[in-house]
């Protein structure tokens, strides 16, 4: 086979190209493919590559590779795109389960939105002091499949997200794996605005599903929001985070939002390396 079919999709501005390897027939260097074709000048242009592969425990396995080629444990908006892609490809029904490195995810694909039940947040901490350029910042932290540091700010518009996000992402407090950095402005008791610097993409992205989830959870833990679902506005659009809080734990956490297919095409494999 000289050509590889793909579909480009986006969820709240987070964009990915997806490949159906549900039968496990393709043996390709996915990391190299991601590095080349996520490039926005010389490739398809995407935040990541998603590959659907076989699974013994669920409808399929989702593997996600960041633009730098690194494999991520999980991606919320990527998982929502993967669920919609699986329905389009006839791999899974509209209610499904799929495996990720962060655990098995449940998803529901509706006519207007796709919802995924994310793994229960881990390693919650509402007050971590970190020093950057002789200034102390106090951040929250939650692992919602991947790690997220949460910094609350008064004005997102004037924030140097790229430089401050890069410093938080690589701060020693989060070594060795590093963290994503999310900047949160609380709008009211049920609504927050978030900007995210994503690990692996190494830049600000238009949205981040796991980041929106972490930001909503930490906002609730600090009593900055009190209503659910929490409406999260990001540069690429809006997501809803629904959850319950029982016995000191966040449970039944759902990430909800729209996804769209952008275009489909083929990659010529002898030019893919």
List keywords for this structure.
Diaminopimelate Epimerase, Chain A, domain 1, 2 domains, 273 residues, alpha+beta, 18-stranded mixed sheet, globular, 16% helix, 47% strand
In short:
The chain has 273 residues and is α+β, with helices and mostly antiparallel strands.
Task: Provide the fold topology.
Blueprint: E1 3-11, E2 14-20, H1 30-37, E3 48-53, E4 60-66, E5 71-72, H2 76-88, E6 95-100, E7 103-109, E8 114-117, E9 122-132, E10 135-143, E11 147-152, H3 161-169, E12 180-188, E13 191-198, E14 203-205, H4 209-221, E15 230-234, E16 237-246, E17 249-257, E18 260-268
Parallel strand pairs: 2-3, 4-6, 11-12, 13-15
Antiparallel strand pairs: 1-2, 1-18, 3-4, 4-5, 6-7, 7-8, 8-17, 9-10, 10-11, 12-13, 13-14, 15-16, 16-17
How is this structure best described in words?
The chain has an 18-stranded mixed β-sheet that branches. It folds into two domains: 3-113 and 259-271, Diaminopimelate Epimerase, Chain A, domain 1; 122-257, Diaminopimelate Epimerase, Chain A, domain 1 (Roll). It has helices at 30-37, 76-88, 161-169, 209-221; strands at residues 3-11, 14-20, 48-53, 60-66, 71-72, 95-100, 103-109, 114-117, 122-132, 135-143, 147-152, 180-188, 191-198, 203-205, 230-234, 237-246, 249-257, 260-268. It is an alpha+beta fold.
Largest sheet features: 18 strands, mixed
Helix percent band: 10-25%
- Amino- and carboxy-terminal Cα gap: 15 Å
Any idea what the radius of gyration is?
18 Å
Low-pLDDT stretches: none
Give me the strand/helix succession. EEHEEEHEEEEEEHEEEHEEEE
- Overall mean pLDDT stands at 96
Report the β-strand fraction as a percent range.
over 45%
């Amino acid at each position: 086979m000289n050509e590889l079919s793909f579909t480009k999709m986006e969820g709240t501005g987070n964009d990915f190209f997806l490949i159906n390897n549900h039968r496990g027939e393709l043996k390709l260097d996915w990391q190299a493919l991601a590095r080349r074709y996520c490039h926005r000048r010389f490739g398809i242009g995407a935040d990541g590559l998603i590959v659907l592969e076989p699974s013994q425990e669920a409808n399929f396995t989702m593997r996600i590779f960041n633009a730098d080629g690194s494999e991520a444990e999980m991606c919320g908006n990527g998982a929502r795109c993967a669920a919609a892609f699986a329905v389009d490809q006839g791999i899974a029904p509209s209610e499904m389960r799929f495996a990720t490195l962060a655990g098995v995810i449940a998803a529901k694909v509706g006519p207007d939105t796709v919802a995924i039940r994310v793994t229960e947040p881990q390693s919650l901490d509402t007050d971590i002091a970190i020093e950057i350029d002789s200034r102390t910042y106090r951040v929250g932290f939650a692992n919602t499949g991947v790690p997220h540091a949460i910094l609350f700010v008064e004005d997102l518009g004037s924030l140097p997200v790229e430089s401050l996000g890069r410093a938080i992402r690589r701060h020693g407090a989060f070594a060795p794996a590093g963290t994503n950095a999310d900047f949160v402005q609380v709008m009211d008791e049920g609504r927050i605005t978030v900007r995210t610097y994503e690990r692996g993409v190494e830049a600000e992205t238009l949205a981040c599903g796991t980041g929106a989830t972490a930001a909503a959870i930490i906002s609730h833990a600090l009593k900055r929001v009190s209503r659910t679902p929490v409406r999260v506005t990001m540069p690429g659009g809006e997501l809803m985070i629904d959850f319950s809080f029982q016995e000191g734990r966040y449970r039944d956490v759902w990430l909800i939002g729209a996804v769209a297919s952008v275009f489909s095409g083929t990659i010529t494999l002898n030019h893919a390396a």
